[in-house]
Design a protein that fits this description.
By secondary structure, the chain is an alpha/beta fold. The chain folds into three domains: 167 residues, 3-Layer(aba) Sandwich (Rossmann fold), CATH 3.40.50.300; 85 residues, Helicase, Ruva Protein, domain 3; 112 residues, Winged helix-like DNA-binding domain superfamily/Winged helix DNA-binding domain (Arc Repressor Mutant, subunit A, Orthogonal Bundle), CATH 1.10.10. 53% of the residues lie in helices and 12% in strands. The strands form two sheets. A five-stranded parallel beta sheet has the order 2-3-4-1-5, with helices on both faces. A four-stranded antiparallel beta sheet has the order 6-7-9-8. The two termini are 44 Å apart.
């Protein structure tokens, strides 16, 4: 264990550790030139004072969606531009139509912020402000799928363009999952999905180049060898193609090496870091799931911990659950929280997406087990998963009540 003096001493490992943060903006974004150019093309009309096409950006966690969008915004700030005004909104924080509108007003009309205006007043302030000198407002909604009344928000932003004679609003939505669009009202859907950009997962070669670029800034010379970079890149690509995971593993590996008093990071350090970082990323990911995905996952965690009936199957140390049992528990928990449970069709989509995220495993049962059904297994410790979800779900419930 390190003493306080050792903690405060100059690091033998790190030079600029924040370069490994997912929020750090490097000088160049690797393997995303095509996607950056697509965002630039979509926003270019707005910068010229024209109404741009609304844009939807999606891809799995850690594929660079937010970073590339912020990169383009930084470019825009360097261009003399009197037409476009941009509001970037993190919808995990501003998760309702009212909060989003209030944030836009606060960004652009600070004198009116925090005055307790209602939704109609905010709407009228925005329309007057846009129309007064033909502004184009670009609203970037990051994590758009967590907005509770998204149909109302999309409709309201689109309505501004109908109600004003000059100027306009361009909406950019960013999400980790494309399937949420199926829950949108068709009018909102046609408005939002004018242009789409898909961010694919990174390949191992991409992740290696990202790690090499960031490590050159983050670590002191000679601390990290190519073998470690290739190992982390290959392992992360196999897991998910998630750059955030790669960077977290690299940072953790540096911490482990430092705790051991070493001057270099080894593959053994990276292997230990991978186990830690993978769990941390997963529990961060749980917090970004939409409400009903969380409720389904919580049901699986509760049943896995021992709340299941005779339908629970055990194969060695693995616990499998019948899909029907999970759906019944999901309905029960949803109703107890006064949330309308979704249909079985939507439930199957949630199961599929949770499996794609690697949070659960889903497989068809063998013959002889009460006919043809699906078996579900939680891929992470039930205690920790349940605890994280309780903080999310019941914390949210208390905030909303």
């Amino acid at each position: 264990m390190q003493t306080l003096n050792e903690m405060l001493a100059e690091s033998k490992i790190f030079a600029k550790r924040e370069a490994l943060s997912p929020h750090y903006m490097p000088k160049h974004l690797i393997s995303r030139a095509k996607e950056i150019n697509s965002i630039e093309k979509a926003l270019a009309p707005s910068l010229k004072g024209e109404r741009g096409r609304n844009l939807f950006i999606y891809g799995k966690t850690g594929t660079g969606k937010t970073l590339c969008t912020r990169y383009v915004l930084d470019e825009i700030k360097m261009i003399p531009n009197g037409h476009a005004k941009i509001s970037y909104i993190n919808c995990k924080i501003y998760n309702s139509r009212y909060r989003v509108l209030n944030k836009i007003v606060g960004d652009n009309l600070p004198a009116y912020a925090k005055r307790g205006y209602g939704t109609v007043d905010l709407y009228e302030k925005l329309t007057s402000w846009i129309e007064e000198d033909t502004k184009i407002l670009v609203v970037i909604l990051d994590e758009i799928d967590v907005v509770k009344d998204l149909d109302d928000l999309i409709y309201t932003l689109a309505r501004i363009n109908s109600d004003i004679r000059s100027g306009g609003v361009t909406t950019v939505g960013i999400s980790n999952r494309v399937s949420f669009k199926e829950t949108l009202d068709p009018r909102g859907l046609s408005t939002l999905y004018e242009t789409e950009i898909v961010f694919p997962p990174y390949y191992a070669t991409d992740l290696y180049e990202i790690l090499k670029d960031r490590s050159a800034v983050a670590f002191k010379p000679g601390v990290v060898g190519d073998d470690v970079l290739h190992y982390i890149a290959a392992t992360s690509a196999k897991e998910s193609g998630d750059a955030r995971l790669s960077l977290k593993v690299m940072s953790k590996a540096g911490e482990i090496a430092e705790e051991h008093g070493s001057n270099t990071v080894t593959i053994e350090d990276a292997t230990s870091a991978l186990k830690i970082a993978d769990n941390e990323i997963v529990y961060d990911m749980i917090g970004t799931l939409p409400l009903h995905h969380q409720l389904v996952l919580y049901s699986i965690a509760v049943l896995t911990k021992g709340g299941g009936s005779y339908k629970k199957l055990t194969d060695g140390s693995d616990v499998y659950l019948f899909s029907g049992e999970v759906y019944s528990r999901y309905k029960s928990i949803s109703e107890s929280m006064k949330k309308e449970p979704k249909s079985e069709r939507w439930y199957r989509k949630y199961i599929s997406e949770l499996a794609m995220e690697g949070l659960i495993a889903s497989l068809e049962s063998s013959k002889g087990i009460r006919g043809h059904t699906k078996l579900i297994k939680l891929m992470y410790p039930a205690d920790k998963t349940k605890s994280v979800l309780e903080g999310q779900l019941f914390g949210q419930e208390q905030q909303q009540s």
